[in-house]
Amino acid sequence: MTSSALYSPWRPLVIFYGICCYSATAFLSSTPFCPRGVPKSIRSRSFVSSRLASTMTVTAADITTAGKLGEAETSALSDKYKSVLYLATDKGADKGIEPNGFASLRGLTTRHLPVDVKDGLSLQLATDALQALDELPAPALVVCSSGGRASAVQCLRKATEEGWTKDQTLAYALEMKLPFVKNPSLKDWVLATVAAREYRDELPLLFRPLYEETSWTYTFLLGCPVTKEAILIDPVDLTVERDLQVIKEMGLTLVAALNTHCHADHVTGSGLLAQKVPGCKSMIAKISGAKASVHLESGDRVRFGRRYVEARATPGHTNGCMTFVTDDMKMAFTGDALLIRGCGRTDFQQGSPETMFESIWTQIFSLPHETSVYPGHDYRGRLMSTIGEEKRFNSRLSGKSREEFIEIMNNLKLAYPKKIDVALPANLVDGLLAS
């Protein structure tokens, strides 16, 4: 090598270029942030200005989410984005942009998709939101009044693109601290939408509703179509043999007998079933104080083959009430918490109208409109309803404030339960008092 080449005036630029290329290669090949349980294909990209950064909740791919924006932020949007998906309803204080909500947007491709968290969440709405994002030009901004709905839609988009399961989606949302996770309705909306895709190729759940006429009690049989393992929800002692015959005829193996609560109107058959069927476990909420093979906590999953139900604490009728929600979130077995066009009484067994109201709105009415509701009883021959129907037509709950609901429940003046003095002591020992 000649001295002129060694000391060329271009030498510093060549060295600088080499350092830049190495640094860029190292950066692009580094492992992106990856929450536990989520595929490592996530890489976030920000399109926001420093002025907007304080209002942003999360950025990912070509989507940025935001809470309420002021006039200065709004005027700068066209410099950074090509489109806006606006989720606020613009009713009352629910505006995502000051001062005039959606009408304040100018110079961008926009779409207004009102998302009413209390009364409007459905799987169809989720589909509409995803379709809107597919049609809007990138980069896109998703706006609501607090960032919760926007983060929910962004999470849905990521989960759909990545093909995540329900558990992976929740893991991502928790790791990223997305604000929608703190809202039970938005959380259930996102997870139910993901579950609808996750289970779309599965064989249909085996399902049989059974009935005991003297106590007007429904018992529900659920089975895995692949392994043939099954569970019974709210079995009655008088119909144990009938239930076992149905299970035999369907070629199922009973692995669990679940109680939604410690009943006062009939004696449970869960203890008898645990005695008669090898491997079958009786189950009830731990807080109920009743005996069982397994005591459940809120959030526990009871598995039968490749399927499961999630136990949700829904106290109010009794302190140990649970609602069981299927893994695909299409069915909710509400016991005596939510009934069809009504709800369970709250005047005995640690009942509380205040607690009942909270339970129904945060653990049951948080489910999408399409979710089917199967109560423990009905006195008018009805088998099931939906979340959407009950939100609209349930006279004790629809449009009622907490105070109005409490007033209704405290003035029902119901008769003393006829079988409580027999049923309750028996059910505290898994229905096996006589033995």
From TrEMBL:
One of its GO terms (cellular component) is mitochondrion. Its EC number is 1.13.11.18. It is an enzyme of class 1 (oxidoreductase). This is persulfide dioxygenase. One of its GO terms (molecular function) is metal ion binding. The chain crosses the membrane at residues 14-35. One of its GO terms (biological process) is hydrogen sulfide metabolic process. Belongs to the metallo-beta-lactamase superfamily. Glyoxalase II family. Gene3D superfamilies: Protein tyrosine phosphatase superfamily, Ribonuclease Z/Hydroxyacylglutathione hydrolase-like. It is found in: Mitochondrion. Its main location: mitochondrion. It comes from Nannochloropsis salina CCMP1776. Keywords: Acetylation, Dioxygenase, Iron, Membrane, Metal-binding, Mitochondrion, Oxidoreductase, Transit peptide, Transmembrane, Transmembrane helix. The keyword Cell membrane does not apply. Residues 216-377 form the Metallo-beta-lactamase domain.
